[in-house]
Amino acid sequence: MFNKVKLKFRNLNPITKGFLCVIYILIFSFFCKSWQIGLVMNLFVLLSCLFIDEDVIQLIISLKKILLLLIIVAIFQGFSGNEFNYVNALSTIFRIIGVFFVATLYTKVSTQNELLYFWEKCFKPLKLFGVSSSEYALTMVIAIRFLPVFMDEIERIKIAQIARGAKLKTNSIVSAINFMPLLIPILTQAIMRSEELADAMEVRGYSTERPRSLYKKYSFGKYDFLTIFFTTIIIVVLAYIK
Amino acid sequence: MILFDRVSFCYNKNQETSFILKEVSFSFKKGAVNGLIGKNGCGKSTIARLIVGLLEPSDGKITITDEFNAKPYYFSGMIFQNPDNQIVGTTIGDDIAFGLENFNLSSDEINDSINKAASLFHFENMLDIPVSKLSGGQKQMLCIASVIALNPCWIVFDEPTSHLDPWARIEFWKIINELVINKTIGIIVISQLPEDINRFDNICVLNDGEIYFNDSVNKFKELKSLPYGIEFPEGWKLEKLLEDEK
């Protein structure tokens, strides 16, 4: 039974998912002024992982990716006054963690088609200015799809440079300068890949001038209304506390 | 049938010396594996791009005489060398669907075509699997499935086996042979590998933008010499040596 509920929450309408992601990022940005509210909201996001079948531990571990950023921000926020202000540092950290959790969960529970669907709807008003919404949405989705490919490519080029005597493994600032020669092959590869991808897409009938259809149908269900209702309550409560 | 009638092509029209193809006339027929070989820069990939409409001929005419197979009434597809550079979707299902969505088909029609194409390549239970988890061979198969889902009259393979291991190559040629037997899809394979020449039924040899040879593989075997950069498969060379000894 609970598994069915988890599946329902995971497969919410893409517009609901995207809307919730934006709303919670805004909540963390503007409503979580105190560290207590930040902590409660973060716990709420972690609790919601249980309803969308995501691993809470893995999500917490993924924080190490932004650990350096958190430390730097905490230091800057803490020393903003005459003495170190723990409350200020903590509330800022919780806000950043919250935004990170929400963005991570959104990309984890959304497929490429769902992202495309939501972004296409978001960019639709741009049509008034002659900008193709579907084109921009597809560009963003393809950029996400190619991130792991480019990470592999960078690793491959890095290994090739190390094999030819480049010193890229040291952890000094000088090593950052040593990374400069990697930029040209990475850029060249990126351009070549994008050209071939553009050809492949054109051969498979892609055109910005023709309308496209989506093979997955998305509808609003009771779980969509339930989550929106819950979020509205949270916003009202937070506005009242504020 | 694909007919090339005195087709010329150059990338820079201001320079007469930059002709990649010089008034070439030849044809490809369905029901056989049509091979296109030649050394680097001789115009093989240009011919492929001309067939699928990515390029327009500078002069001459290309005619496809075949009738459409089925919806979405699509003439010719192309499989590029590197599968990583042509997969658009993040999952197998998404990638097969991409081409079909471009033709504005209904959701039911798309799902139908996805299931048919996926079952041909044993992907039917893997539609939600991320593309990043597939092997090189499986990615190449996905590219073929994505094009076959569009029911093309012709498929052009641009050096399709260069990224495959020997076992994946065997699997690839099995699928190509099945397509040839069905006769619904015409096959053109561009390759530089001598071992692939063994698999062709007809061979077209390009040399410096001109047709050097265009006939059956048996007649190709009888050729005394080949243009610089092209070689017979090792097996054929051994056969010839044995015949000479007899």
What does this structure look like?
The complex is a heterodimer of chains A (242) and B (246). Chain A starts with a helix and ends with a helix. Chain A has 242 residues and is an all-alpha fold. Chain A contains eleven helices and no strands. Chain B is an alpha/beta fold. In chain B, the strands form two sheets. Chain B has a six-stranded mixed sheet with strand order 5-6-7-3-8-9, with helices on both faces. In chain B, strands 2-1-4 form a three-stranded antiparallel sheet, with helices on one face. The radius of gyration of chain B is 19 Å and the shape is globular.
- Assembly state here? heterodimer
Low-confidence stretches of chain B: none
Compute the separation of the termini of chain B in Å: 41 Å
Net shape of chain B: globular
Number of strands of chain A: 0
Percent of sequence in beta strands of chain A: under 5%
Task: Note the beta-strand portion of chain B.
Answer: 15-25%
Number of domains of chain A: 2
Count helical runs of chain B: 8
Which sheet architecture does the biggest sheet of chain B show?
6 strands, mixed
Radius of gyration of chain A: 22 Å
* Helix content, binned percent of chain B: 25-40%
Following the backbone from N to C, one meets helices and strands of chain A in this order, namely HHHHHHHHHHH
Helix-strand topology string of chain B: EEEHEEHHHEHEHEEHH
Please outline the major beta sheet of chain A. Answer: none
Give the largest interface: A-B, 28 and 38 residues
Structural class by SSE content of chain A: mainly alpha
